# Entry
Amino acid sequence: MQSEHYRESWGDNLTEENIIEVGHITHFFPKISVAVIELKETLKAGDTIVIKGPTTDFEQKVDSMQIEHKSIPEAEAGQSIGLKVAARVRETDVVYKKF
# Structure
């Protein structure tokens, strides 16, 4: 499955100069494909993120995010957000923001 908002990130030359760690996955709801992300940095709707882990490696655009079932345009470090994800994620996965 590939679309303009999701693609496997294999082969990308991701370096420390073009990505920054913004958080990690703390929970995943497979039936609705929503991940809970605990943030270390600010994240905004429209940002492109990369989610990586031992068996996870994909990129997607942040279309919308929620805190306590309310849509928000931006979340800050220390907050936990719900985010619809394009593929299965795991609790050990790390979330990076791409520049």
